[in-house]
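Quick note —
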Amino acid sequence: MDKPIPKIVAGMLPKYRQLLIIIRNQILTGQILPGERIPSEEELISTYGLSRGTVRKAIAQLEAERLIDTEHGIGSFVRAFHPNAVPFHFLVSSESIGETILTASYQIITQEIIPAPFDIAEKLKLPLGAKVIHIARRKLVDSEIVSYTERYLPEEILPTLVNEDLTKIGSIHDLLVGASDFPLLRAELEIEAHLINAEEARLLKAMPGDSAIVVHRMTYTAPNRPAVWYYGLFKSKYFIGISVN
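Predicted structure written out below.
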């Protein structure tokens, strides 16, 4: 029996995004296999009752995500290998990779929507003042502060993030991977060890001159579109490393 055709309706989510999600899911679940053609513009217009501009916008996003290649006059085909087939995640600190004798908790410092400051707008390639979600929190292990993390992301990446109870969520990155309509495709990392200054000591409730690990990370959605800017400050003894899978 053929599966029912998903409906695209007017609402909070733009129609092109609804179509994008439908086709993306068909690709990632193997309903449309590598090398196969996705439905043509005409077929998508007829099936979902959409305008040509809406359909083209969804196809352009699939191309930007490197899920399909388009041959003009022939059609769009699923790439033989697409980078979003195996989502990646990060593992940071000993507690997060299975030392269950430790008890982790989270303290929210900031969770807000703000106009993007100049440096953040520049990093995320946004207009100055565009709305971004800003989150800062501390991680505690057995009641000791072990890290301070901060991230900025465009509000559209996951508008509901600002309302989430982040005291109960271990990995915000994994939440974004699972809940955002924008796939997180790759990340660039910078990791360094140094001795903390007075401000960093205040964030970790440590002593100036203590050793720490600093992580700067930019996560991207479409190949060159920045999605999440992240800063992490970790007490050295609790930092195991970062694995991208």
